[in-house]
Amino acid sequence: MVGVSGGVDSSVAALLLKRQGRNVAGLFMKNWEDDGRLGECDADRDRLDALRVCAALDLPFHARNFSGEYWDQVFTHFLAEYRAGRTPNPDVLCNREIKFRTFLDHARELGADKIATGHYARVDCLDGRYRLLRGRDENKDQSYFLYTLGQQQLAATEFPVGELPKPQVRELAREAGLATHDKKDSTGICFIGERDFREFLSQYIPAQAGEIRTPQGAVLGTHQGTMYYTLGQRQGLGIGGRRDADGQPWYVVGKDVEQRHLYVAQGNSNHWLDSRSLRASDASWTAGAPPADGLRCSAKTRYRQPDQACRLEFRGDGLMVYFDAPQRAVTPGQSIVFYTGEECLGGAVIAATDAPYGGLAQG
Fold first, then answer.
1. Which Pfam family is an annotated match for this chain, by its short name (predicted)?
2. What's this model's pTM, rounded to 2 decimal places?
3. Which helix (H) or strand (E) holds 55?
4. Is 54 a known active-site residue?
5. Which of these is catalytic: 41, 54, 125, 190?
6. What is the DSSP string of 184-218?
7. What are the structural domains, with CATH classification, of the chain?
8. CA 265 centroid distance within chain
9. Which residues are annotated as a binding site for ATP?
10. Would you list which residues are annotated within the binding site?
11. Is 94 part of the annotated catalytic residue set?
């Protein structure tokens, strides 16, 4: 059962499996109910594109509405994290709870023994253990968002486009006459799409204005709500061109949700965003068990970041990560994902860092 999203990647995943002579069907997941308050939703267009692809490939087509599960298991967590001043990554939770749990369950009910998606990643089995591997296309690799998959999910999953570069995926779709061959890639948070983020979030969390301050305590202006800002952000602060500043850009370096203070510092090289260690929680390991304490590996604290050398140290139900080099704008609520070579070991949610406003005790 291929999760057909109406995009080119899942379309080619279905195409490749069909060409292998596999018994293939497609299932379209609707994960969000839109009431129209904030503009048109793309779900209906995506469903039609997915149906067209299945028709062109002569595949059975199924559709399921998982919006209730998505609200309960993904969106409520998303809102709670923003209320707490963190910046969550809903794509990671969606993969864990919806695409590789709810979808997998429904696929099995429909008679499928495996699922496939259009993710740029790979799975293999070595010495009886399934491994999650990076996609061959380094620019499209999506293993970062899949680190919560365990052995049961990996054993039941295929990623047919994981061996291919994106241009070849589009060419295969064009040659096969698939309507999605030139469809634009989706960007941003899935349920927000192209809509204004602030307007969307304000529908669910009341904005609370407060002061914009420097770390030294100087008040520079006001903001509409700390939830609208993330560490390292430089756009939309509205404090440029000050006579008492030197013209360098300002960056968000910290948030105090209770006091409604947004902290900013000036200059690309300011030290307020730098950290050498972090604490993480809610770890998930693709092997089903954590690696050895003290493991040296590489990590990403955000998607597309180059690999960063680090060391892991387990403490209670959490872990500490120590980096060889300072890290910039590591953001609580986001995921840190670990690798050795091409294998994704797993990851965890960033809880705090040793940056000045990162939340770790200084000593």
1. tRNA_Me_trans
2. 0.93
3. helix 43-56
4. no
5. 190
6. PPP-S-TTTTTS-HHHHHHTTS----EEEE-TT--
7. 2-175 (3.40.50.620), 213-266 (2.30.30.280), 271-353 (2.40.30.10)
8. 27
9. 3-10, 29, 118
10. 3-10, 29, 118
11. yes
Give the whole-angstrom CA distance, residue 334 versus residue 147.
13
**What's the rounded Cα separation, in Å, for the pair 233 and 252?**
5
Cα→Cα distances 238→222, 225, 259, Å: 9, 13, 20
Residue 100: which of 163, 31, 146, 162 has the closest Cα?
A: 146
Phi-psi category of residue 171: left, alpha or beta, with phi > 0 → left and psi -120 to 50 → alpha: alpha
DSSP 36: S
pLDDT tens for residues 91-149? 999 999 999 999 999 999 999 999 999 999 999 999 999 999 999 999 999 999 999 99
Both tokens of 258, joined, read 């209770």
Supply 180's token pair: 């999605």
The CB density around residue 284, as the number of other CB atoms within 10 Å, is: 19
User: Counting every residue, how long is the chain?
Assistant: 363
